[in-house]
Structures are given as structure tokens and as C-alpha cells.
Amino acid sequence: MDTKTKPAGEKSGDAVRAVGRALDILMAFRAGDRELSASELAGRVGLTLPTLYRLLYTLEHNGFVMSVGEPQRFRLGPAVAHLTHVWSAGFNLRSVAAPILREIWEQTEETVSLFVRQGDDRICIAELPSPHALSFKRGIGRREPLLHGASSHAMLAHIDMSRDQLAAYLQDADVGLEPYLAELEAVRRQGYAVSHAEVLKGAVSIAAPFFSGPGVVGGAIVVFGPASRLREPQIQACAKLLVQKAALLSTLLFAG
To answer: pLDDT value at position 6?
Structure first.
């Protein structure tokens, strides 16, 4: 074997170790630590100074730490504040939405999920699984492109995109622009979206958008279930319930 060429598994292992060490550096900061020297950080994470400085450079480049003063000291950067804001916002949203999700779950006995938009993705931040043996769920923390499924349609229908912007957004997807535009228009008109086996085979999902401010879509409440249980009468009943509860969540978020 050529000793100058690392096996793919070794390179992957090195990358994982580097990520772990970088996270160790961030976690080394404790409450009350405004700034730490490189020596203090090295002592807490057990790294040599050359390795520590390489990782600090990467963290600083991405906004997770800042270097200040002379001699040089380090503090947490704005990227950490951004993550804190995202986490706290999601936590507050889950708290406000929890009783609403519970009520929908009790009335439908299907999986109920809360999705929010993060960039070009949707992420599940709360979920109540169906009590039935035959059921579907996404899982808290599940991240997927904001493209397919009822929750994606419910959110995209209320995101301000021109026709050209939407066409660019869909260019790498196996989706026709005109049918997609028609679907989004239907969602805006009726107030909810329905998806049949678009993401999960054999599943039906119904979603209604909620808003965190006037005209600002915050995410979607979704009901998932098997097509064998969610036929047209059940879909319409779920849709009516979701539209009502999403409007209530929007009102609560506006008031907060």
C-alpha cells in the first residue's frame, strides 16, 4: 500500500475526530467564562497547542469563537448566539403548540407533527405518534428538503417567491413547475395541503400552515396516517381541524 495515501475510512475517521475536538472546545466554556486563553482551553480539552490553534482558526472562521486582546484570548462567537436563538425559539414554539398538538392527536388518533422551516429544509420539532399499530411518523429532529409532502406545500404556498425564483428552486427536482404552482395555489385557496404517498409509501399527510407574524409563515401542523384509514371523509375532517388549530396557534404566537 502507498503510505502516502490514506484509506477513505481513515480520512473519514480523522474528520469525525476533528469535529469531536471542535465541539469539545465549545463545550469547554462554562457559565461565567467570558474569555479563556489558549492554555486554559488546552488544559480543559487535553489538546496540544498546535492542534488547538488549528481548530480555533476553523471555529473563528465560521463565527463560533472570537479572538480578542493581547495576549490573545478567546470567547464564544455570534454563531453560538444564533444557535441559541434558534433553539430557544423552537423551545418556546413547542411549549405554546403542545396543548394544540395534543388536542389534534386526541381527536384524530393519528401521528401529529410540528414542522418549521430552516433555510431550504423543513425540520420536525415536535411529534405525537399514533397509538395504532399501523402508523407513520417522521421523528423529532428529522430534516428534509422543503419540497415534497404536505408540510412543504403548506409552507411554500405562503413564502414570497416569484415564478422565476420558484423555477430556480425546483430546477434540480423531478417536479414540473406548472403542476407545482397549481398545487401551491390550491393550498392558498383552501388553507391546507394534502399529500398521498409523496414522501412515505402508503401514507397520507394533511398539513395547515401557521404564522409567527403577519404574512410570516412559521411552519406547519401535520397529521400522518395510512391511506387505509385516512379516506376522503377523514381527510376533510382532519383538514378542517388543522386549519382551526393552526389559526389558534398563529393567534397565540402573535400575542406572544
So the answer is: 46
Q: Model confidence over 118-153: pLDDT tens digits?
A: 888 899 999 999 999 988 888 888 888 888 899 999
Q: Which three cell numbers stand for residue 13?
A: 475517521
Task: Report residue 228's pLDDT band, with 50, 70 and 90 as the boundaries.
Answer: very high
Q: At what angle do helices 38-45 and 8-27 cross, to 10 degrees?
A: 120
Please report the beta strands in 103-157, taking only residues with DSSP state E, as ranges in sequence order: 111-118, 121-128, 143-145
Q: Find where cell 422543503 sits.
A: 146
Length of the chain: 256
Q: Compute the chain's Rg from CA coordinates.
A: 23
Q: Which helix (H) or strand (E) holds 244?
A: helix 232-255
Return the number of other C-beta atoms located less than 10 Å from residue 205's C-beta.
31
C-alpha cell at 70: 493581547
What's the CA gap between 103 and 33, in Å, rounded?
43
CA-to-CA distance for 248 and 252, rounded, in angstroms? 6
What is the side-by-side order of every strand in the sheet holding 36-37? 36-37, 73-76, 65-68
The values of phi and psi at residue 112, to 5°, are: -120, 130
DSSP conformational letter for 180: H
- Position of cell 486582546? 69
pTM: 0.65
